[in-house]
Amino acid sequence: MKYKVKIIIDKIINFFLPRTCFCCGADLKTKSLLCEDCVKKVEPVKGLICERCGVMLKSGGKYCHNCRGSKISKYKCSFIRSALQFNEPTRALIHAFKYEKYLNIAPYFAEVMYRTFRKYPEYREATFLVPVPIYKSRKRKRGFNQAEVLANHLGKICGTPVLNALVRIKNTKSQTKLTRDERKQNILNAFALAKGMESQIKKQAVILIDDVCTTSATLEECALVLKKAGAREVLALTALRE
Ligand SMILES: [Zn+2]
Ligand SMILES: [Zn+2]
Questions:
Q1: What is the CATH number of the domain that holds 142?
Q2: How far does the centroid of ligand 2 lie from the alpha carbon of residue 18, in Å?
Q3: What distance in angstroms lies between residue 176's CA and the mean position of ligand 2's atoms?
Q4: Average of pLDDT values for 21-40?
Q5: How many folded domains does the chain comprise?
Q6: Candidate from 55-64, 159-168, 227-236 with smallest mean pLDDT
Q7: Distance, CA 40 to ligand 1 centroid (Å)?
């Protein structure tokens, strides 16, 4: 997997020409977003992971602390996997994509997401990719929803159609500085089913798509809405895993 990530990063290199590394600020001799040292730190999610939420586990076991025992039955999102580990360099790439509008990064994220998609037969049953929506004023300001852009590229590769089945009805504050419980509270009731989606979602298995998964609170809120609407199963796939 590592060399594939390298190929993808190399492709990025041919597209852009920032003068300094997006991550550490080092001067760049080649056309790249990241310096050589930072590129080396771009790593796929690997090793032992929680069977439900896909978080990397430090010690053995089937599930992480948050999914263990009776806790597993309360989750609506049954299966989460991510392509790359969230760290300084991958955070910098997502930042460049989302906030500095380097939209050409998206196909490369979609490629690494597709490798994860292919690895797990669980995803093959799904009828739709459903992007996690952002609030409409935020989308207007940014010009795009990063999850939707990723879903569109991934959909083209894997052949699963994209369905904008959800809307964000609450303009939530950024989750980045919040604790696990605060995130859950912040995102509570933030989503609703988009108009006329009931018949499309009913009895279907769908894959939620997002850029980053941290505590999975956002994915869980989305899954709740989709399950209420009659979805048979809700899975999720993200570019990065924190
Ligand atoms: Zn660097
Ligand atoms: Zn877990």
A1: 3.40.50.2020
A2: 38
A3: 19
A4: 86
A5: 1
A6: 55-64
A7: 9
Residue 22, both tokens: 């997006």
* CA 52 to ligand 2 center in whole angstroms: 5
Beta carbons within 8 Å of 126's beta carbon, 6+ residues apart: 160, 204, 205, 206, 207, 233, 235
Nearest ligand to the CA atom of 219 = 2
What's the pLDDT band for 15 if we cut at 50, 70, 90? Answer: low
- In the reported structure, the alpha carbon of residue 134 is separated from the centroid of ligand 2 by a whole-number distance in angstroms of 25
Residue 26 placed within a domain: no
DSSP conformational letter for 123: G
Report CA-CA distances (Å) from 109 to 40, 71, 150: 16, 31, 7
Task: Examine residue 208 and state whether it is found in any structural domain, yes or no.
Answer: yes
Size (the chain), residues? 242
Does residue 24 belong to any structural domain of this protein?
no
Tokens 């590592």 correspond to 2
For residue 100, the model assigns a pLDDT of: 85
**pTM for the full model?**
0.90
pLDDT in tens, 125-163: 999 999 999 999 999 999 999 999 999 999 999 999 999
Residue 35 Cα, ligand 1 centroid: separation in angstroms?
Answer: 4
Cα dihedral 195, 159, 4, 108 sign: negative
Ligand nearest to the CA of 78: 2
> Which residues span the domain enclosing 94?
67-241
CB-based neighbours (< 5 A) of ligand 2, an ion: 50, 52-53, 64, 67
Check whether 17 has a pLDDT greater than 60: no
Å from CA of 198 to ligand 2 middle: 29
Asked, for residue 4, whether it belongs to a domain, the answer is no
